[in-house]
Amino acid sequence: MTGRRLSHLLLALAGLLVALYPFTLGADPTVSCRGVELSPGQSCAKADGSAAQSYEARAADARNAAPVIVGVGLLVAAFGAGLFVADVRRDRRVTAAES
Questions:
Q1: Buried/exposed code over 46-73 (b: 16+ C-beta within 10 A; e: otherwise)
Q2: pLDDT digits over 6-59, tens only?
Q3: pLDDT of residue 81 exceeding 90
Q4: Which letter does DSSP use for residue 25 in this model?
Q5: Radius of gyration of the chain (CA)
Q6: Residue 35: what are its φ and ψ, rounded to 5°?
Q7: What's the predicted TM-score (pTM) here?
Q8: Domain span at residue 29?
Q9: What does the angle CA 25 – CA 20 – CA 42 come to, to the nearest 5 degrees?
Q10: DSSP summary character for residue 22
Q11: Where are the alpha helices (DSSP H) in 1-99?
């Protein structure tokens, strides 16, 4: 297997791992603020103190991000797989032309 094909497969694998993240490590229901766990009703102030975000808003943002992460991961996986397939087809055409 050439280095190019291996890189295409690794790209596809990386995309699949990104797509699975919200269902594995990203599935943790804990809402935190700079490493400190929040409880319902609490808020998280920005580091510069300019604004705050409620527990509910942070939890909703995390839930809304999951479909986007899955979609981007699947697009990257499809792109890597497409590159791999195109490379295999190109090599078959070159081999057939040489025969």
A1: eeeeeeebebeebeeebeeeeeebbeeb
A2: 999 999 999 999 999 999 988 888 898 888 999 999 999 888 878 899 999 999
A3: yes
A4: G
A5: 21
A6: 90, -5
A7: 0.79
A8: 3-98
A9: 40
A10: G
A11: 3-20, 55-98
